[in-house]
Specification:
about 160 residues, about 50% helix, 5 strands, alpha+beta, five-stranded antiparallel sheet
Length: about 160
Amino acid sequence: MKYRQLTKEQFEGLHEEFARFLASQNIDKKEWDELKKEKPNVAEDEMNVFSDVVWDDVLTRTAYLEHFSPNLVNLFKCEEKEIHRIVIKIEKDINVLEQEGFEWLLKNPNDEAIEFLRGSKAYQEERNVELFDLIEKGSNISKGELYEYFDRLTSNS
């Protein structure tokens, strides 16, 4: 398996897509129920293949990731060949995980307690595998507004 199996909730949310996937494997509902009962390892394999297909699709479309901790923000722009990163370190008793702290950061980006670090690197492994690893470590897929905001802000300095 390339990634990890989708959670029960994710499978439930993708019920129709999974049914179509099984149909493409010539497996109908009756056969699926039999597989789960009589050959659970084969059913598990089908679920794993479907999970990889879903993850690959999601990760291929992912352009930005964000990871927050109380006084550190990591913003990623995920291009085809390389990933760009903006790190925002806050050397003040500010917690960006709380609304008040997050708003402070947005209103005071030039405060002397804030340090910006920027970098880019080519992917060491397959792009989607690296993005998946970042997600498993706590990053969330985003639309990129924060990355673009801080990119403009730090590009001019």
